[in-house]
Specification:
272 residues, alpha+beta, OB fold (Dihydrolipoamide Acetyltransferase, E2P), 2 domains
C-alpha cells in the first residue's frame, strides 16, 4: 500500500510535468524530476509549483492521493485477516508491523498459537469459525498463527516421552495466564519452521512477555542462529535482564546455574 502511494505521487506528477513541457512547446531542464527522485516529496512539490504553475494543482492532487493511500494502509488491517503465519506477507515482517490477536493455546513457555482478529472481525466474533481448541471443527493449524517468542528460550516441557526441563511447567503456566486474552503481536521474522517470531505485549501497560519471562527466571536469552532482539535493542539489553534474575536466583537460576534449552534440544534430537 505504501509503495503504491509513492508510485502514485511520482508517476502522476511526472506525467503532469511532461504534459506541461509539451503544451508549452519548449524544452527545459528536468530539475523537477531530479527533485522527485532524489530530494523527496516536499522538494519536488516546490519545484513543480515554481517552474510549472499550471501543473501545481494536479501535483497537489497526486500528492494528496498518495498520502491518502499511505494513511489508509493501517486501516486495511481492520478488514484483512491472516489464518496462519504463512498468510502474512513478507513486507509485514520487514516493517515489524503489529496487530491484535487472541491467544488460543499455549504449547510451552515460548511457543503459542493465536488467532488474528482484525477490528471488524472482533466486533462480530460470534460469527467466526472456531478451532477445535475453542469447541469448533477446524484444526488449530488451519485457523491460528504459530508464534515463537523473540529474544528468549524457555525451558522445555515433557514431550514425546522425553523428560521436561526444570521450571518448564512453571514457564508454561506463566504464559497460560494470557490464554483467551487479546494481546498485541509485533512481527520480527519467520523461523525455519514457518513460525512467526514475534514480540507479544499484554495487559493494560503492554508488558513485554519475553521480558517478563526473563525477569522472573522462566527463560534464558536466546543466543542461537537467527536470534531476534527487537528494534533498537541488542543482546546486551537482554543479558542485563537475565543477569538480574540470576543474581536474585529466580526460577531456573535458583541453584546458581540454569540448564541450557538449546543444549537440551540437541541431546533430545540426538536421542541421548
Amino acid at each position: 500500500m505504501r509503495v503504491l502511494a509513492a508510485a502514485v505521487v511520482l508517476a502522476t506528477t511526472e506525467a503532469l510535468v511532461r504534459t506541461t513541457h509539451f503544451s508549452r512547446g519548449r524544452t527545459r531542464t528536468l530539475t523537477t524530476m531530479k527533485a522527485l527522485r532524489g530530494g523527496g516529496i516536499v522538494k519536488a512539490t516546490r519545484a513543480v509549483i515554481t517552474r510549472f504553475p499550471l501543473a501545481s494543482v494536479g501535483a497537489a492532487l497526486a500528492i494528496g492521493l498518495g498520502t491518502g493511500l499511505y494513511a489508509a494502509a493501517p486501516v486495511m488491517d481492520v478488514f484483512e485477516r491472516y489464518h496462519t503465519a504463512a498468510d502474512i506477507p513478507n513486507h509485514r515482517f520487514q516493517d515489524h508491523d503489529a496487530f491484535s490477536v487472541v491467544v488460543v493455546k499455549v504449547a510451552d513457555g515460548d511457543t503459542l498459537r493465536v488467532r488474528h482478529v482484525p477490528a471488524l472481525d472482533f466486533a462480530r466474533g460470534r460469527w467466526r469459525p472456531k478451532s477445535r481448541a475453542e469447541g469448533g471443527k477446524l484444526k488449530l493449524s488451519e485457523e491460528t498463527l504459530q508464534i515463537r517468542l523473540y529474544a528468549v528460550d524457555a525451558p522445555e516441557t515433557a514431550k514425546f516421552g522425553n523428560k521436561g526441563m526444570p521450571m518448564g511447567d512453571e514457564a508454561t503456566a506463566f504464559v497460560k495466564r494470557i490464554e483467551g486474552k487479546r494481546v498485541r503481536v509485533t512481527l520480527q521474522s519467520k523461523d525455519q519452521y514457518g513460525r512467526a517470531v514475534a514480540k507479544i505485549s499484554y495487559g493494560l501497560f503492554r508488558k513485554d512477555l519475553s521480558e517478563e519471562l526473563l525477569a522472573n527466571g522462566l527463560a534464558t536469552v536466546y543466543r542461537s542462529a537467527g536470534a531476534e532482539y527487537g528494534q533498537g535493542r541488542t543482546e546486551e539489553y537482554w543479558n542485563l535482564i537475565e543477569g538480574r534474575a540470576k543474581t536474585l536466583r529466580k526460577g531456573v537460576w535458583k541453584d546458581g546455574k540454569a540448564a541450557d534449552p538449546a543444549a537440551y534440544k540437541r541431546k533430545v534430537k540426538a536421542g541421548k
